[in-house]
Fold:
Amino acid sequence: MAAPTSTFVPADFDGTRFESIEPLARALLERPVATKAELVAWLLDRSELDAACGEAGANLYIAMTCNTEDQGVQGAYARYVEEVAPKVKPLAFALDKRLAGLAAELALDSGEGGERYKVLTRDTRCEVELFREENVPLETELALLGQKYDQTIGAMTVDFDGREQTMPQMARYMESTDRAVREGAWRAMVARRLRDADAIDEIYDQMIERRDRVARNAGFPDYVGYAYKAKHRFDYGVSHCNAFHDACEQVIVPLIRRLDAKRKSALGLEALRPWDLSVDIKGRDPLRPFSGGAELVSKSRVVFERLDPRLAKMFAQLGDGPGRYDQPAPDGGPAYLDLDSRKGKAPGGYQFMRDRQRRPFIFMNAAGMQRDVSTMLHEAGHAFHSMLCVNEPLLAYRSAPIEFCEVASMTMELLSLPHLGGPGGFYPDSKDEARARRHQLEDSITILAWIATIDAFQHWVYANPRHTRDERRAHWLGLDARFGRAVDWTGLEAARQNTWQRQTHLFGHPFYYIEYGIAQLGALGLWLRSLEEGPAKAIDLYIAGLSLGGSRPLPELFAAAGLPFDFGPAAVRRIVDRVERELEKLPE
Ligand SMILES: [Zn+2]
Structure:
């Protein structure tokens, strides 16, 4: 992997201590910069400092998630978040402000070589333009409200099956082949959620009021425009999102409802109810594609070897076992992997780049399920993205906007589909293989309609910030009628009008959701090309797009990967028609 390109940050720099960071940041703030060449050198030095600080935070986060019971690492992470990060933030903003000023003064993004700095200049200018001193306390209030929401949701438990259970634990009952068990579990969860429905409405009301004020303070008529700018959505607007909603309504929802009708008749039901959506329609047990992280790695390697030698080579670099965050990788450097589930590990999965050493890290809790296979292939896609950008000198360009990062990961979930079976693969039995493929394809389509529902809801909420709770519930019901599943909600109206309350993004990360829809369409676009022109061509495009990192605007990243930047009904129909044809070929 590439070595750092700047010697500005000493080798023994400790990015977890503000006392180490401050003098280097001050030196950058005070260093005279009179020419474009000096500004480029300044940028590289700042990039090294940011990478070193980012890696220090990453290492603390990795240790914290791998060791939830170790008070030492928990305390170190909390100290960093509460004491170091808030002091670094104003310095980072001062550096942004200086960069925006110098970039304008020295015309960094024009003239010879200026093209290279267009994205960086645009992003930095945006941050400086949005900043308002009076919004700082409002942001703090919003963070506290977000924490209150998390606590309210996290504290929910129900007594079921003879014991107290959390909501994630209850979700497993939705796969039970006993319909009475599913219904009982669903009703228990809903009853518990409804007890806090008013409290959550209150939190959301307060969030909407503050976000509206944040936007007005920054000179916007409402929070929609502010959020687009804050999320650096320079290359698409509300009309693109509306086109995505239309495509979902016209093309995706009809397919989902056809699949729901099949589900209803396969299960032999008079009516499909909300608790009938996750059970296997033939009453089979869950798939068990592997056991243990070592087998997950070896079988994933088989998948990538069959898919493409370039991807196989990158995957092999990550190691041949499940890894452990505190033990070295085979190449002697810090671990790339920590995959096995064990006591004291946080839930979930993620890929985190250690920015200074430029080494990715994948965290997982592999439990032998098909969704673990998807997660492994997904996070491997993020790691490939990181690895393909290691030689980019500027940290800001070593990662792409989220809309494209998720193309890197979701594409691997889809292009791997033809390689899940066979000897040495996850599903030697072809019936299991077909089931896994069907599952993946159906999920990739079903999620799009839910994304449209959430996205359309937020657009309405923030464009009409003075709505009443009744109006909000009525609007949600209208959206569910437009995008929802073919489910019979008779007698369950109170549950139906509050289903949005469990979508955490609405609270902690407003407007952050359509990104997954845009990326999923990109991934499906590459999947379609692999079927039409062969996998090698699709991987060529995949690598070409990923290698650009974040150095080009979003539509150009899509173009480099051979993808249209179009989310409207016509573009989506081409994809969905093919998905439906592929599903028809697969046995149930
Ligand atoms: Zn991802």
Q: What stands out?
A: The longest strand covers residues 359-366.
